[in-house]
Specification:
With 144 residues, this protein is mainly alpha-helical. The protein has one domain: Serine Threonine Protein Phosphatase 5, Tetratricopeptide repeat (Alpha Horseshoe), CATH 1.25.40. It is built from seven helices and no strands. 36% of the residues are buried.
Length: 144
C-alpha cells in the first residue's frame, strides 16, 4: 500500500481475506446506487470502499470502474481535484484499452461524463461524449 492509498477499514480487510468477487461487485453497486438515488449518503464509495476489494481479487476492470466511481463521488462531495485525479487514471485505462469488459469500459466513461458535468467542465464532458459515440460506432476501441 502506498502513502496515497487509503488505509483499509477492518471491513475491507476482512473482505480481502475472503477474496470475494461478489463482495467487490456489491460494494461497487452500493456506491453506484447511492450516487443515483441520494447524494447525501455519507461517502459510500470513497476511501477505497469500492476499489480495494476489486484490487484484492485482482479484477483490473472492476478496480478501474470502482476508481471512476470513487472519483465521481469525490467530485460530487466537492473534492474536485482528488476526484479528477482518480478519473484521469481511470480515463487513461479506458483510452489505453486496459478495461476489457465492454460494460465496465462504457460505464467508466459515463462516470467520467457525470463527474465532468458536476465539475462544470463542459469541454471535457463534450470530449468524453464524442469518445463514447466513437466507441459505439467502432467496437474495436473497447477493450483492445
Amino acid at each position: 500500500m502506498t502513502e496515497s492509498e487509503p488505509r483499509p477499514t477492518a471491513e475491507l480487510v476482512e473482505a480481502g481475506r475472503q477474496g470475494s468477487a461478489e463482495f467487490a461487485r456489491l460494494r461497487h453497486w452500493q456506491g453506484d446506487l447511492a450516487l443515483l438515488v441520494d447524494r447525501d449518503l455519507p461517502r459510500p464509495a470513497v476511501g477505497g470502499r469500492c476499489s480495494y476489494p476489486a484490487r484484492v481479487i485482482g479484477d483490473a476492470d472492476l478496480e478501474m470502474l470502482a476508481m471512476a466511481l470513487e472519483g465521481v463521488w469525490l467530485v460530487t462531495l466537492g473534492e474536485v481535484s482528488a476526484g479528477m485525479r482518480l478519473l484521469d487514471e481511470s480515463g487513461a485505462a479506458v483510452v489505453g484499452g486496459e478495461i476489457r469488459d465492454v460494460d465496465a469500459h462504457l460505464t467508466a466513461c459515463c462516470y467520467l461524463i457525470l463527474a465532468c458535468e458536476r465539475a462544470r467542465d463542459y469541454g471535457r464532458t463534450a470530449r468524453w461524449c464524442e469518445y463514447v459515440g466513437e466507441a459505439r460506432r467502432c467496437p474495436s476501441l473497447v477493450g483492445r
